UniProtKB/TrEMBL annotation:
It comes from the Bacteria. The keyword Heme applies. The lineage of its organism: Bacteria, Pseudomonadati, Bacteroidota, Sphingobacteriia, Sphingobacteriales. This is Heme-binding protein. GO terms for molecular function: electron transfer activity; heme binding; metal ion binding. Pfam families: DUF7133 (PF23500). It comes from Pedobacter miscanthi.
Amino acid sequence: MIKFSLSFISFALVFFGLKSFFNDPQTQRVLPPGLTITNFAGPDVTPSPACLAVAPTGEVYVGVDMIGSLGKEQGKGHILKLIDKDNDGKMDQHIDFAEVDNPRGIIVQGSQVFVLHTTFSKETKQATGMDLVVFEDKNGDGKADGPEKPLIEHISNAKYIRERGTDHATNGIRMGIDGWIYISVGDFGFHDALDRTGKKLTMLGGGILRVRPDGTEMEVYTHGTRNVYDVAIDPYMNVFTRENTNDGGGWNVRFSHHIQSGEYGYPVLFQNFTDEIIPALADLGGGSGTGALFMDEPNWPEQYNHVPMMADWGRSMLYIHRVTADGPTFTQKDEEFIKLPQITDLDVDGSGRLYLSAWDGAGYSGSPDKGYIVRAVPNNWTYKAFPDVKKLSVKKLTELLKSNSAVARLNASQELISRNNKQATETALKTASDQNLALDVRIAGLFTYAQLAKENGIATLVGFTKDNALKEFALKALADRKTFIDKVPVEPFLEGLKDSSPRVQAASIIGLNRLGRPEVANVLLNTKVPASFVAPAKGTEGAHATPNAAIILPHLAVRALVELNAVEPLLAAVKTDNATLALWALRYMHNPKVVNGLIETYNQSKDEKLKQQILVTLGRLYKKEIAYDASWWWGTRPDSHGPYFKAVSWEASPVIEKFLKEEAAKAGAQGKQFYVDLNARQRMDIPEFTVEEKVAATEEPKIDLEKIKNKKGQVGKSSIEDVLLAINKLQGDPLKGRAIFNNQGCITCHSLSRAEKMKGPFMGQIGSIMNREQIAESILKPSASISQGFASVMITAKGDRTYMGFITEETAAKVVLRNIAGEVFTIKAGDILSRKEMENSMMPEGLANSLSYEELASLVTFLSEQKK
């Protein structure tokens, strides 16, 4: 059995240390033409840089994090301010800006520095959660003037940060031209996050949260992602992410377009209920998405401009995603851009200097000797100082607002908003109104005006909805702030539903959702449902990463109808041509009135197809998701059957059960299969409909690992250094490597095909995220890094039983564990007394001892070719 590392924080460390970015010939070959890259700061100053942000004037703020993703000790992180005085691409001065633990995201706006980081108790020394805070440096000495000011508190699950670290916690932050701070929430989710107004929010799982810069109006933007690390936001307020992989559970790195109010399905809908979600734009295989940026700077070459740039730690690569409009969403094509060992983050300043941070093999918990920052600029780049916006006149700020630089527009916008006077408001309005200006400039003016005018600007924004170019963005701005949304008229949104542009239609539906006017329900019910709204066939996985522009509008309409709690219009619509959309929405509404209304409609209907759809809806309503209290988490390889993770009965469950049993009895033996399938798909667990599935026994190969360990071939007689040097010179035979994979016991814990049952780390794509040297290192030193979800676990259970192995499956009711011998045990969740993650890999060292150099090279080559 050979164990490998496959994901973020668990990328294997090369024994000799990863080669310098600047001295590695292989790295040099993949640098894009037309760019000059310099080493800005090294590990002597910026070890383990987890995140960075750049002031428009060029000062680089770096979050040093030697706690890392799995560390749990405080006092190892801080924010550094780096300065390049002569603009030669090398840091000349560094200042300790502030002390914070686990910095995960930074935004610099004027004298304010926003930071997302882990918090610790002074008394217990243990993590208490994560906060979004703001520091001020009003005197300009490069240091925070005083203690941090919390904007949102408890924005992650403190229990699991204490137990695991921040690997699935809350991550990057970025500000849009609309003035919101967008926050990437990992699937730890959060419970009772608290903003400055006292508002509380709870979110089970991951998604994107947003908040105003003063810590007010906190709200969920999208939901149902796994482990988003950062967002890229374009000038038109399109939000893009590249997620972390699912450690062998079938949810790879995914590139997604986030549409406000959208549900993306992880983990309970993305396999068996994909008709209900907004799918990702692409499944990109294994990897670990980290930092993100939308590049929109005038001095960058056109081929590298106006694109989301997305870092991938696992693949040590900065990617460009070229997006093409597709109705209300996009399609995409990704391409390699800059190779950087374990890249973590990136940002650009007002002069067009791109800065990138790299972990460079710093390990799970950071290293004082690894990590650096590089600067990338176009070959023809010349330094042009970005002005201090605080010292600019409104006229000069207007020039910046009209710039074709996204950095300039955002900083000019925020400065105008901070001045909050008539002149600033008028210049923003004039910019938005000028039809001779570029659309991204007019949009910047529009959102700046909306933030300045607030409710006094409603009538003007309504007027902008008559402007075809600005209509979509005026609708967004009108519904953007719930603090005065009761004053916003509904008519522009109803008119927008008739527009020929699907983007305008989408903005209208989202706006109607936010307005909260129940009387619009019947209009939303007219949204057409495409033929692609079909549940995956039994035993198949749905298309959760295939763009589906046609599903966006009905999906948004359903989210709005549920939010409006439009029970009566939905029940009435079940009897009409809009039944499909109505029943789609009703499946999320656990209300006794819904259940009784559906049963009544069923009894009155003679349409057998409709009656079957009602039965499916009632099956979905039989249980509901338990209220999230942050006492649990579904793990790195959660049960993804759906439709709920921790399902519980509710007050109408007995009514539904009685009705379904009565109908099943009427259907007789011939019709029973429908109820059996419904019971299994919706996981109702009604005994009368439960059929015990017979799983064919699989004969696992019996391999004596101790015997393999004790054999001393060429590898076992040599130092690791000599083995790695030899492997680098030998190509090996992949056909022989396949046989060695079987004979050495690798198949005991690793699958090569997704058609096989998942065991330990999936090997079917190892070649796409690790090179030959890293694969060899993982074989020779299995405990150097352990993939998320595949650490050895010690479980003690009732009956004085103890198990040790790695978890292959976990649901709310059970844990399935596989031990070193390949034995599989199913343990009831209620029987577990304790559970502890072990520090060492379950795979012992020495399983390659019996091999020759040539044989190990063949195994490594075979694995390097696995790129599914």
